[in-house]
Design brief:
11 strands, 242 residues, globular, 34% strand, single chain, Thiol Ester Dehydrase, Chain A, alpha+beta
Length: 242
Protein backbone atom coordinates (compact mmCIF):
# COMPACT_ATOMS: atom_id res chain seq x y z
CA UNK A 1 0.00 0.00 0.00
CA UNK A 2 1.38 3.39 -1.00
CA UNK A 3 2.06 5.70 1.93
CA UNK A 4 1.07 9.39 1.66
CA UNK A 5 3.97 11.81 1.15
CA UNK A 6 4.45 15.44 2.19
CA UNK A 7 3.39 18.18 -0.21
CA UNK A 8 3.43 21.99 -0.14
CA UNK A 9 1.52 24.82 -1.82
CA UNK A 10 1.18 28.60 -1.69
CA UNK A 11 -2.23 29.03 -0.04
CA UNK A 12 -4.82 31.14 -1.80
CA UNK A 13 -8.44 32.23 -1.51
CA UNK A 14 -10.96 31.56 -4.24
CA UNK A 15 -13.22 34.34 -5.57
CA UNK A 16 -16.41 32.80 -4.16
CA UNK A 17 -15.07 33.16 -0.61
CA UNK A 18 -14.83 36.96 -0.76
CA UNK A 19 -18.45 37.19 0.41
CA UNK A 20 -17.15 36.32 3.88
CA UNK A 21 -14.97 39.35 4.61
CA UNK A 22 -12.67 37.32 6.87
CA UNK A 23 -11.22 35.96 3.60
CA UNK A 24 -10.20 39.44 2.43
CA UNK A 25 -7.30 41.47 3.80
CA UNK A 26 -9.55 44.34 4.88
CA UNK A 27 -12.12 42.10 6.56
CA UNK A 28 -9.47 40.02 8.32
CA UNK A 29 -7.79 43.15 9.71
CA UNK A 30 -11.16 44.40 10.96
CA UNK A 31 -11.40 41.11 12.93
CA UNK A 32 -7.88 41.54 14.33
CA UNK A 33 -5.87 39.34 11.93
CA UNK A 34 -2.83 40.50 9.94
CA UNK A 35 -4.01 39.20 6.55
CA UNK A 36 -6.81 37.30 4.82
CA UNK A 37 -7.65 33.90 6.29
CA UNK A 38 -7.74 31.10 3.73
CA UNK A 39 -11.15 29.41 3.71
CA UNK A 40 -11.30 26.27 5.80
CA UNK A 41 -12.61 24.20 2.89
CA UNK A 42 -9.59 25.23 0.81
CA UNK A 43 -7.24 24.23 3.62
CA UNK A 44 -9.15 20.94 3.78
CA UNK A 45 -8.67 20.48 0.04
CA UNK A 46 -4.92 20.88 0.53
CA UNK A 47 -4.91 18.45 3.48
CA UNK A 48 -6.52 15.75 1.32
CA UNK A 49 -3.84 16.02 -1.38
CA UNK A 50 -1.34 13.54 0.18
CA UNK A 51 -4.16 11.04 0.76
CA UNK A 52 -5.55 11.11 -2.77
CA UNK A 53 -2.07 11.14 -4.32
CA UNK A 54 -1.39 7.88 -2.47
CA UNK A 55 -4.81 6.17 -2.37
CA UNK A 56 -6.63 7.57 -5.41
CA UNK A 57 -10.35 7.24 -6.12
CA UNK A 58 -10.76 4.58 -3.42
CA UNK A 59 -10.43 7.22 -0.67
CA UNK A 60 -12.64 9.71 -2.54
CA UNK A 61 -15.35 7.05 -2.84
CA UNK A 62 -15.45 5.60 0.68
CA UNK A 63 -12.85 7.21 2.95
CA UNK A 64 -13.27 10.18 5.21
CA UNK A 65 -11.60 12.56 7.62
CA UNK A 66 -12.10 14.69 10.68
CA UNK A 67 -10.60 18.16 10.22
CA UNK A 68 -9.81 20.79 12.85
CA UNK A 69 -8.69 24.34 12.18
CA UNK A 70 -6.38 25.27 15.04
CA UNK A 71 -4.94 28.59 13.81
CA UNK A 72 -5.46 30.70 10.70
CA UNK A 73 -3.81 29.80 7.42
CA UNK A 74 -2.97 33.12 5.76
CA UNK A 75 -3.21 33.72 2.02
CA UNK A 76 0.12 33.94 0.23
CA UNK A 77 2.02 31.72 2.69
CA UNK A 78 3.77 28.49 1.68
CA UNK A 79 2.18 25.71 3.71
CA UNK A 80 3.56 22.17 4.02
CA UNK A 81 1.18 19.24 4.49
CA UNK A 82 2.85 16.44 6.41
CA UNK A 83 1.27 12.95 6.73
CA UNK A 84 1.89 10.53 9.60
CA UNK A 85 0.44 7.00 9.89
CA UNK A 86 -1.15 6.08 13.23
CA UNK A 87 -1.27 2.77 15.07
CA UNK A 88 -5.06 2.54 14.60
CA UNK A 89 -4.76 2.54 10.77
CA UNK A 90 -5.75 6.19 10.49
CA UNK A 91 -3.45 8.80 8.97
CA UNK A 92 -2.90 12.29 10.35
CA UNK A 93 -2.00 15.12 7.97
CA UNK A 94 -0.90 18.46 9.44
CA UNK A 95 -0.64 21.92 7.88
CA UNK A 96 2.60 23.68 8.86
CA UNK A 97 3.53 27.32 8.25
CA UNK A 98 7.27 27.72 8.86
CA UNK A 99 6.81 31.47 9.37
CA UNK A 100 4.49 30.99 12.36
CA UNK A 101 5.34 29.80 15.87
CA UNK A 102 2.04 28.02 16.42
CA UNK A 103 1.78 24.78 14.43
CA UNK A 104 0.02 22.82 13.13
CA UNK A 105 -2.35 25.39 11.67
CA UNK A 106 -4.85 22.65 10.81
CA UNK A 107 -4.95 18.86 10.80
CA UNK A 108 -7.01 15.92 9.64
CA UNK A 109 -7.33 12.38 10.90
CA UNK A 110 -8.26 10.28 7.88
CA UNK A 111 -9.53 6.71 7.46
CA UNK A 112 -9.91 4.41 4.48
CA UNK A 113 -13.53 3.22 4.92
CA UNK A 114 -16.47 5.25 6.26
CA UNK A 115 -19.06 2.49 5.96
CA UNK A 116 -22.73 3.11 5.33
CA UNK A 117 -24.35 6.48 6.02
CA UNK A 118 -26.26 6.85 9.28
CA UNK A 119 -29.61 8.62 9.56
CA UNK A 120 -29.70 12.40 9.87
CA UNK A 121 -29.73 13.32 13.56
CA UNK A 122 -32.70 15.09 15.07
CA UNK A 123 -32.44 18.81 15.62
CA UNK A 124 -33.57 22.13 14.20
CA UNK A 125 -34.33 21.32 10.52
CA UNK A 126 -32.98 23.61 7.82
CA UNK A 127 -34.44 24.16 4.38
CA UNK A 128 -33.67 21.25 2.00
CA UNK A 129 -31.45 22.36 -0.87
CA UNK A 130 -30.30 21.12 -4.27
CA UNK A 131 -26.93 21.78 -5.92
CA UNK A 132 -25.57 21.11 -9.38
CA UNK A 133 -22.00 19.86 -9.14
CA UNK A 134 -20.17 22.18 -11.48
CA UNK A 135 -18.16 25.40 -11.37
CA UNK A 136 -17.41 26.12 -7.67
CA UNK A 137 -18.89 22.74 -6.67
CA UNK A 138 -17.23 20.72 -9.41
CA UNK A 139 -14.05 18.79 -10.21
CA UNK A 140 -12.00 21.99 -10.59
CA UNK A 141 -12.21 23.13 -6.95
CA UNK A 142 -8.75 21.88 -6.05
CA UNK A 143 -7.06 23.01 -9.25
CA UNK A 144 -8.34 26.56 -8.79
CA UNK A 145 -6.88 26.54 -5.26
CA UNK A 146 -3.47 25.27 -6.41
CA UNK A 147 -3.89 21.49 -5.94
CA UNK A 148 -1.90 20.01 -8.84
CA UNK A 149 -3.52 16.55 -8.83
CA UNK A 150 -4.95 15.82 -12.29
CA UNK A 151 -7.27 13.01 -11.14
CA UNK A 152 -10.36 15.18 -10.72
CA UNK A 153 -10.42 17.03 -14.02
CA UNK A 154 -9.26 13.98 -15.96
CA UNK A 155 -12.14 11.85 -14.66
CA UNK A 156 -14.77 14.54 -14.02
CA UNK A 157 -14.73 13.44 -10.39
CA UNK A 158 -16.00 15.99 -7.86
CA UNK A 159 -13.31 17.13 -5.41
CA UNK A 160 -13.91 15.97 -1.78
CA UNK A 161 -13.66 19.58 -0.57
CA UNK A 162 -16.98 20.20 -2.34
CA UNK A 163 -18.87 18.46 0.48
CA UNK A 164 -17.76 20.91 3.22
CA UNK A 165 -18.07 23.71 0.65
CA UNK A 166 -21.75 22.82 0.27
CA UNK A 167 -22.05 22.77 4.07
CA UNK A 168 -20.54 26.26 4.10
CA UNK A 169 -23.18 27.43 1.62
CA UNK A 170 -25.90 26.11 3.93
CA UNK A 171 -24.32 28.01 6.83
CA UNK A 172 -23.92 31.24 4.88
CA UNK A 173 -27.51 31.07 3.62
CA UNK A 174 -29.31 30.00 6.80
CA UNK A 175 -27.21 30.69 9.88
CA UNK A 176 -24.39 33.24 9.80
CA UNK A 177 -24.42 36.95 10.60
CA UNK A 178 -21.51 38.91 9.15
CA UNK A 179 -18.00 37.46 9.13
CA UNK A 180 -17.77 33.87 10.34
CA UNK A 181 -15.18 31.12 10.83
CA UNK A 182 -15.38 27.41 9.99
CA UNK A 183 -13.82 25.54 12.94
CA UNK A 184 -14.12 21.79 12.31
CA UNK A 185 -15.85 19.11 10.25
CA UNK A 186 -16.16 15.37 9.96
CA UNK A 187 -16.69 14.25 6.36
CA UNK A 188 -17.57 10.67 5.42
CA UNK A 189 -17.72 9.50 1.81
CA UNK A 190 -20.28 6.91 0.68
CA UNK A 191 -19.83 7.20 -3.09
CA UNK A 192 -18.59 9.47 -5.85
CA UNK A 193 -20.20 12.18 -7.93
CA UNK A 194 -19.18 13.66 -11.25
CA UNK A 195 -19.47 16.96 -13.05
CA UNK A 196 -23.09 17.87 -13.76
CA UNK A 197 -24.66 15.57 -11.16
CA UNK A 198 -27.39 17.15 -9.02
CA UNK A 199 -27.38 16.42 -5.28
CA UNK A 200 -30.00 16.93 -2.59
CA UNK A 201 -28.96 18.23 0.83
CA UNK A 202 -30.87 17.78 4.08
CA UNK A 203 -29.55 19.34 7.27
CA UNK A 204 -30.38 19.98 10.91
CA UNK A 205 -28.79 22.13 13.60
CA UNK A 206 -27.88 19.71 16.39
CA UNK A 207 -26.20 22.17 18.77
CA UNK A 208 -25.74 25.88 19.46
CA UNK A 209 -23.36 27.24 22.09
CA UNK A 210 -21.04 30.13 22.98
CA UNK A 211 -17.26 29.80 22.68
CA UNK A 212 -15.26 32.71 21.22
CA UNK A 213 -18.55 33.79 19.68
CA UNK A 214 -21.81 32.06 18.83
CA UNK A 215 -21.35 28.58 17.36
CA UNK A 216 -23.58 26.13 15.55
CA UNK A 217 -23.10 22.44 14.76
CA UNK A 218 -25.01 21.07 11.77
CA UNK A 219 -25.54 17.49 10.58
CA UNK A 220 -25.88 17.19 6.78
CA UNK A 221 -26.64 14.37 4.34
CA UNK A 222 -25.79 14.83 0.68
CA UNK A 223 -27.60 12.43 -1.65
CA UNK A 224 -27.35 11.59 -5.34
CA UNK A 225 -30.38 9.99 -6.99
CA UNK A 226 -31.80 9.10 -3.58
CA UNK A 227 -28.62 7.52 -2.19
CA UNK A 228 -26.34 9.24 0.39
CA UNK A 229 -22.87 9.93 -1.00
CA UNK A 230 -21.53 12.12 1.83
CA UNK A 231 -22.24 12.80 5.50
CA UNK A 232 -20.92 15.99 7.10
CA UNK A 233 -20.87 17.26 10.66
CA UNK A 234 -19.97 20.94 10.34
CA UNK A 235 -19.17 23.46 13.09
CA UNK A 236 -18.56 27.20 12.72
CA UNK A 237 -18.52 30.42 14.69
CA UNK A 238 -21.57 32.00 13.07
CA UNK A 239 -21.30 35.34 14.90
CA UNK A 240 -17.91 36.68 15.98
CA UNK A 241 -17.66 38.38 19.39
CA UNK A 242 -18.03 42.17 19.38
Amino acid sequence: MTEPKAWSVVARNLPEHAGNRIHTDDGAREAGFPAALVAGVTTYAYLTHPLVAAWGIDWVARGGASVRFRAPVFAGRTIEFVPRPNADDTTTVTAVDADEEQNPRASIEAWRDSGAASDLRAGEPLEPRRFELDDEFGPGYGARAGDDLTLYEASGLVHPAVWPAIANRVFSTDLVRGSWIHTRSTIRHHGVARRGDVVDVTASVIDRFERSGERAVVDLRISLRGRPIASVEHEAIIALPD
